[in-house]
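Job type: complex structure
Entries:
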Amino acid sequence: MSTKNKILDAADVLFADKGFNGTSLREITSQANVNLAAVNYHFGSKKELIKSVMSRYMDELSPQLESALLLICQAKRKPTLHEVFSAFIEPLLSLNEFKENGTSTFLQLLGRGYTDSQGFLRWFLTTQYPDVFTNFTKAVKKAYPELSTEEMFWRLHFTMGTIVFTMSSSEALIDIAQNDFDNKLDIAGVIERVIPYVSAGVAAPISPL
Amino acid sequence: MSTKNKILDAADVLFADKGFNGTSLREITSQANVNLAAVNYHFGSKKELIKSVMSRYMDELSPQLESALLLICQAKRKPTLHEVFSAFIEPLLSLNEFKENGTSTFLQLLGRGYTDSQGFLRWFLTTQYPDVFTNFTKAVKKAYPELSTEEMFWRLHFTMGTIVFTMSSSEALIDIAQNDFDNKLDIAGVIERVIPYVSAGVAAPISPL
DNA sequence: CGCTATTTTAAACGCCTGTTTAAATTCACA
DNA sequence: TGTGAATTTAAACAGGCGTTTAAAATAGCG
């Protein structure tokens, strides 16, 4: 395997586990059995390495999400919110073929990106992959047209928070759940449980304020 | 004002803004106009300072939450989930009297604690303030007794994610919302909007799986 | 093979981190 | 006012950080 990919794989796992700021290049390179300077040689800087780690996922995910959401938008029938959110399941789980535990790692990274690094990753994603957001918004609007744009803005961000936050600590939560309920559960199981939740949240009746 | 409090106030703001790992003791002490060594003199270590910052909020909040939730648990009438979640509003907003923008700072810190520092803060809160969790669980169970303990476990963590994540980026979100919809909104407004969302999420019908 | 370009390597750079030290200062109380 | 304790201070500590450098090793190709 190439040095570049060895670095990406090691960084991927470590970033997800300890955050971007919390992971040093020395940890990454020693985990990857690679010289320290290799990161700067192949990627230029730590910041560019972070972007590369995220891009590897987004380039795989983005077209799949786009086609799944477009299918909903172009259908004649009015979709349910449950269907809209379910459109994410298959593309997300497909990351596991592309890399072991790819789904959870990606969602963990997403969570890191929101809290670490003061929002530079949010900027990176919304500017580099804007279609995902616009298609998703369209699909939700089709499923729940009575929702005002502003109300939808908030509810989608609530949803983003639910997903990202849950997944970024999914490992710990699954551990707790397994101890307390000895119920075998994996990342797909968590997704199965979170979708009814966010669907109901977005579908909540409009409060009169 | 005492050196100890000057440090706590400065740390409070900086931790919320840049995270625990992202804030150095030198930033804190220079912001507080205090000698660098004062942190280790008064608190012992950075980790203990973090605990002190959180305790200051929790000691104020915990008894208020306890009595509000107990009121619901001991009432004869079955509460709605909306009422259960609303029990948090007043105690949280009361933090603003105790400190300017205390509500948002506290929730930001909570969000930081979940993602920074690999869960040591979660351990600290659940062991030091367990009553909040148990009372909350009881109240929810009273409002929605059909929900299994396991299902509730997950939905409460989803809710925690929604709240914490939203609030930890509430400043940025309020900015965006104000630009896009020129609708004046503050932290209380965000809370008003998130409660119907999480209520509906927790109240979602139990999926057959 | 020999040469060029690519990649790897060890070492050092300057800077920042949390913590500790010991001296200087301030404070409280007899 | 004098004395001992509490606090503040400047300085240094050891160690980690991302990045850079220049030499060494490797690879691809005429």
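Summary: Residues 54 and 191 of chain A are 21 Å apart (CA to CA). Chain A is about 75% helix and 0% strand.
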